[in-house]
Amino acid sequence: MKIGRRKLYRIIMGSLFPIIYLITDRVFIPLMLASFFLTLLLSMEYERWKHPAVWEYITSKGKGIFREKSGKFTGDTYFILAVFVILFFPKDICIATLLFLVFGDAGSGIIGTRYGKREIFPGKTLEGLVGGLLFNLAIGLAISPLLTISLPLLITGALVASVVEVLPMKVNDNLSVGIITAIIMTSLYLI
């Protein structure tokens, strides 16, 4: 159940940013936290490429939280980079988008891995899409009373994040899902 551990880790760590933003009502603290983690992860990336044994040690101690094989950057680095960028969007859109990024990824990964049978793109299933959408809709409904944006905009954001999650893009979905969702939600919000 490595995917479950990885997704739980991402939910806990990823939810820190929007929760802190909601509690403090200021972007400064989550932005500084994202800057700290981005610096830390970029240092780890450097070590991973310069000294592969360091990454092997980290993954051996991570108990399935970190994937052993990754692309140019790890998913965590792409995720924190996306968090950093999304924090510059309007507050309520930022909070919703960050939660969609965290919960939609978890929902699509867990449901898609466990029940996925109908592949719609390589490595992406219809069941994963539905799982991500259900998780996103649930989180959108849960946070709706805390935000000033409309429920239809939250539903649209949930749908956009879920669809972008399964699209076969060359850009890592940890980076693309949140940024594309934030751009579309902000564009619709400003209309």
**Count of spatially separate domains:** 1
Largest sheet: number of strands, sense, barrel closure: 2 strands, antiparallel
User: Using only CA atoms, what is the Rg?
Assistant: 16 Å
Report low-confidence residues grouped into runs of 5 or more.
none
Total strands: the figure is: 2
Number of helices: 8
Give the overall silhouette: globular
Mean pLDDT: 91
Percent strand equals: under 5%
Could you explain the architecture of this structure?
With 191 residues, this protein is mainly alpha-helical. It has one domain. The protein contains 8 helices and 2 strands; from the N terminus they run H-H-H-H-H-E-E-H-H-H. A two-stranded antiparallel sheet has the order 1-2. Helix 7 packs antiparallel against helix 8. The longest helix is centred in the middle third of the chain and has 25 residues. The mean pLDDT is 91.
Features:
76% helix, mainly alpha, globular, 191 residues, two-stranded antiparallel ribbon
Task: Report a brief summary of the structure.
The chain is mainly alpha-helical and 191 residues long.
SSE blueprint and pairings:
Elements (H helix, E strand, L loop, with lengths): L1 H23 L3 H23 L1 H10 L13 H12 L4 H25 L3 E3 L2 E2 H18 L7 H16 L6 H18 L1
Antiparallel strand pairs: 1-2
